[in-house]
């Protein structure tokens, strides 16, 4: 048994990051068995699940859409907010009942929650029936961890709290035939005071440019139309490598592969360089859609959050991007109710929203995360106040989503058609500026980038018709 340890997880040394290569000589563990995986949280987790699916299928397991009739159920968890925690524990409650009826059911837990000391202590005492647990650093060891648990018929917990390495060659079963995630950097060294990610994902470590470009070239050959370059803070790409290249050089190289669309998430404003803005403006296949989390409009709160920029610095960057890339859509993340946030601080957030008029915003109520610096701050803002602020903020951001969408009515936009909307029964896709658009059309255009004329706008989506001109 190997358990998580926050002291180890916090360490940051200058030790060189090892690059390992995936190998697996176990092949038949899952023959005749089915698996189901539930994924919580960010795109990083979604992509990890794509790796997990491929590893399980390499072992012989086949996918089952229904967890209730699967032989193996794996929860790939998220720690970012209390809500994600509660969802995973709620699911564990349902699985407990299933396991009581079917003792052969294999249940596993992985992802960020597995890296939390508190969660593992709870699993050790209250969830003894879980078969195996592994963390974010040893996802590639899944075949061995699973074999150990099944062979010994004992619970296997293997969670490393270390700075982390890079493992190339992990198999992947992509969810889409047109859009692909490509990791470019793992971990984070920013230690924003509210965030648990630096503890759960380890230190900032970039993949080599050659490995990333090779992966994108293969995707181009396979007919993919879009890549999303992934990392907790993609703008820090290369800073740990000392090879003399960073995000702007990487973007340029990826652009030259000829992949029709490039996106990247998530950007920390502190690391966003002028060079990056120039590269995005220059290359047509780098999409003009930038996610730029602000978190708060109050410089006092930003300081308490450890965000390393003031409101004014954020606004300068925001306007610089808008001037250089006028059609750019900019989205953001905002936390309300951070400890000690006053009405005045919150008003500054509203003022910033009124100035930036974001195209999209993910808004949250602050929830303390175990072992983070902010969790030790005195929090006198009541839940009712936080809820009220969230409500007010949401009303405001929605006005600007609609206003921005309205501006597109009558224009023709490039759309990557992704499929048929389950709800509407018509085609849907995303514009270059990352807006969802629904329209009538023949399914032969799925997987293609086509011109669509915007006919009307809603708060969170557009309606359109194929522009045949
Ligand atoms: S930069 Fe992002 S991932 Fe890193 S600590 Fe801050 S919020 Fe967390």
Give a description of the structure.
Among the domains are: 6-158, 3-Layer(aba) Sandwich (Rossmann fold); 288-406, Transcription Regulator spoIIAA (2-Layer Sandwich); 412-466, OB fold (Dihydrolipoamide Acetyltransferase, E2P) (Beta Barrel). Helix content is 33%, strand content 22%. The chain is built from 13 helices and 21 strands. It has helices at 6-10, 43-58, 82-101, 117-126, 142-152, 197-201, 209-221, 247-255, 274-282, 299-305, 311-324, 343-356, 383-406; strands at 19-21, 34-39, 62-63, 72-77, 106-111, 132-134, 156-158, 166-168, 179-183, 185-186, 205-206, 226-230, 261-265, 289-291, 329-336, 360-365, 412-420, 427-431, 436-440, 449-457, 462-466. The strands form six sheets. A six-stranded parallel beta sheet has the order 3-2-4-5-6-7, with helices on both faces. Strands 17-18-19-21-20 form a five-stranded mixed β-barrel. A three-stranded parallel beta sheet has the order 9-12-13, with helices on both faces. The longest helix has 24 residues, at 383-406. The radius of gyration is 23 Å and the shape is globular. The N and C termini lie far apart (64 Å). The relative contact order is 0.09. It binds iron/sulfur cluster (SF4). Iron/sulfur cluster is lined by residues 188, 190-192, 195, 197-198, 232-233, 268.
Task: Describe the secondary-structure layout.
Layout: H1 6-10, E1 19-21, E2 34-39, H2 43-58, E3 62-63, E4 72-77, H3 82-101, E5 106-111, H4 117-126, E6 132-134, H5 142-152, E7 156-158, E8 166-168, E9 179-183, E10 185-186, H6 197-201, E11 205-206, H7 209-221, E12 226-230, H8 247-255, E13 261-265, H9 274-282, E14 289-291, H10 299-305, H11 311-324, E15 329-336, H12 343-356, E16 360-365, H13 383-406, E17 412-420, E18 427-431, E19 436-440, E20 449-457, E21 462-466
Parallel strand pairs: 1-8, 2-3, 2-4, 4-5, 5-6, 6-7, 9-12, 12-13, 14-15, 15-16, 19-21
Antiparallel strand pairs: 10-11, 17-18, 17-20, 18-19, 20-21
Helix pairs in contact: 8-9, 12-13
Iron/sulfur cluster binds at residues 188, 190-192, 195, 197-198, 232-233, 268.
């Amino acid at each position: 048994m190997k358990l998580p340890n926050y002291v180890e997880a916090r360490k940051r040394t200058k030790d060189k990051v090892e690059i390992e290569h995936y190998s697996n000589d176990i092949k038949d563990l899952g023959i005749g068995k089915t698996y189901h995986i539930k994924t919580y949280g960010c795109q990083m987790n979604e992509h990890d699940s794509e790796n997990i699916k491929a590893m399980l299928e390499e072992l012989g397991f086949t996918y089952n859409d229904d967890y209730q009739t699967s032989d193996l159920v794996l929860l790939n968890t998220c720690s970012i907010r209390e809500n994600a925690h509660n969802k995973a524990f709620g699911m564990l409650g349902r699985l407990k009942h299933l396991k009581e009826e079917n003792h052969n059911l294999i249940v596993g837990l992985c992802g960020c929650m597995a890296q939390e000391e508190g969660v593992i202590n709870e699993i050790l005492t209250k969830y003894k029936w879980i078969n195996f647990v592994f963390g974010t650093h040893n996802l590639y060891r899944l075949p061995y961890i699973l074999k150990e648990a099944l062979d010994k018929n004992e619970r296997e917990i293997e969670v490393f709290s270390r700075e982390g390495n890079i493992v190339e060659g992990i198999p992947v079963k992509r969810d889409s035939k047109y859009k692909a995630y490509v990791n470019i950097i793992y971990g984070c060294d920013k230690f924003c005071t509210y965030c648990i990610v630096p503890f759960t994902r380890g230190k900032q470590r970039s993949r080599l440019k050659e490995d990333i470009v090779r992966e994108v070239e293969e995707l181009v050959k396979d007919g993919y139309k879009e890549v999303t370059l992934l990392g907790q803070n993609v703008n820090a790409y290369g800073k740990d490598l000392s090879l003399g290249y960073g995000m702007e050089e990487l973007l340029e190289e990826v652009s030259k592969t000829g992949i029709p669309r490039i996106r990247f998430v998530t950007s920390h404003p502190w690391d966003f360089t002028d060079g990056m803005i120039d590269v995005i403006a220059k290359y047509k296949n780098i999409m003009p859609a930038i996610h730029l989390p602000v978190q708060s409009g109050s410089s006092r709160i930003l300081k308490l959050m450890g965000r390393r920029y003031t409101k004014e610095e954020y606004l300068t960057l925001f306007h610089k991007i808008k001037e250089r890339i006028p059609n750019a859509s900019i989205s953001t993340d905002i936390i309300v109710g951070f400890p000690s946030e006053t009405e005045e601080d919150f008003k500054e957030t509203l003022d910033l929203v009124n100035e930036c008029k974001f195209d999209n915003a993910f808004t949250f109520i602050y929830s303390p995360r175990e072992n983070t610096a902010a969790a030790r701050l005195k929090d006198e803002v009541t839940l009712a106040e936080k809820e009220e602020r969230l409500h007010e903020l949401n009303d405001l951001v929605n006005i600007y989503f609609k206003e921005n969408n309205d501006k597109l009515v009558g224009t023709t936009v490039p759309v990557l058609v992704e499929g048929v909307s389950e709800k509407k029964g018509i085609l849907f896709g995303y514009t270059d500026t990352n807006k969802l658009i629904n329209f009538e059309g023949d399914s032969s255009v799925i997987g293609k980038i086509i011109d669509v004329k915007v006919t009307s706008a809603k708060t969170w989506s557009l309606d359109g018709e194929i522009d045949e001109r």
